[in-house]
Amino acid sequence: MAVTDHGQINSGRDFAKPPIRLFKNLSAKLASLPMIMTATVIFVGCSIWTIVHSFTNSRLLPKLNFVGLDQYERLWGSNRWIVSVENLMIFGICSLIFTLLISFTLAALLDRKIRFEDSFRTIFLYPFALSFIVTGLVWQWILNPEFGIQSVVRGLGWESFNFDPLYNPDIVIYGILIAGLWQGTGLIMCIMLAGLRGIDEDIWKAAKVDGIGTLKTYTHVIIPMMKPVFITALVLIASGIIKVYDLVVAQTSGGPGIASEVPAKYVYDSLFLRQNLGQGFAASTMMLCMVVVILIPYVYLQYGGKKDG
C-alpha cells in the first residue's frame, strides 16, 4: 500500500511497470519461431541462392562462375520465353476479370437466400477440391474434338460446328483458361459470399427506403464496403496465375508447338529437361519479380497510410 500527496491510498500494483512489449504473448511468439526460421532459411535463403546463381553459367550442377547478365539476355532473347510471358499476361488478365465477375455474381445470387443454397455452394466449390492435374485431364477430354463438346454437337446435326481450342495455337490459352475458371471460381465465390453476409441488413433497408436500385446499391455501396475482401481475392487469384503449370502440362504439355508455354513450365524444362540451371534460375528470378510486383500494391493497400493505434 502507498499514500499519495492527497492522502489517498493506492495499492502497490498501481505502480507496477507495464510488461515489456518483447515479452507480451511470449508463448505465441515461441510457438511461431519454427515457422519463422523455416520461412527465413528456406524461402529467403533459397531465393537469394537462386538469384546469385542466375548470374552464373551453371549447367548440370550449380557453380559460381559469374557471367553477368548473359542468362537474362538469353532469356529475353528466347522466343519461347516471350510466348510464355504473353500467355501468362493473357491468362492472368482474363482470369482476374472473369473470376471476379463470375464469383461475385454467383455470390450475390446465393446471398438472396435462394432454396438449396447449401447444395449450390457445394457444387460450385467442389472443383476446387480437385487437383489441377485432374482438372486439366477432365477438360482435355471435354475439349477433345473427337469425343468432346465438338463431337456431341456435331452428333446432334450441326456438322459445321468447330470447337477445338486445345488444338488451335491461336486460342489454346483460352482453352486452358476455361479449366482454370471452372476450378478457381468456387473458392473466390465463397470468400465473396462471406463478405456479403457480413454486410449489415440495415444498409439494404436504408437503400430500399431511399429508392436506390439493387444494381446501384451493389456498385455504389456494397462493393466499396467489401474492399478488403476484393484485395484478398485478387492476391489469391494472382498467386495462382503466376504459378500456373499443372493445367498446361495436363491439357497441352505446352503445345501445339510452344503456343501454350507458361513461365513455370519454362523454368521446369530448363532445370530438369535441358539441364541448364543458370537459365532456369534466371527465369525463376523473373517470376519472383512478378510476385513482388503483386505483393507491393497489396501491402500498400493493406497497411499503407495506417497508423498504430
UniProtKB/TrEMBL annotation:
The chain crosses the membrane at residues 30-52, 88-110, 122-142, 171-196, 217-242, 281-301. The keyword Plastid does not apply. InterPro entries: ABC_transporter_permease (IPR051393), MetI-like (IPR000515), MetI-like_sf (IPR035906). Gene3D superfamilies: MetI-like. It is a multi-pass membrane protein. Residues 85-300 form the ABC transmembrane type-1 domain. It comes from Celeribacter arenosi. Keywords: Cell membrane, Membrane, Transmembrane, Transmembrane helix, Transport. The keyword Transmembrane applies. Its main location: membrane. Belongs to the binding-protein-dependent transport system permease family. It holds the Pfam family BPD_transp_1. It is found in: Cell membrane. This is Sugar ABC transporter permease. The lineage of its organism: Bacteria, Pseudomonadati, Pseudomonadota, Alphaproteobacteria, Rhodobacterales.
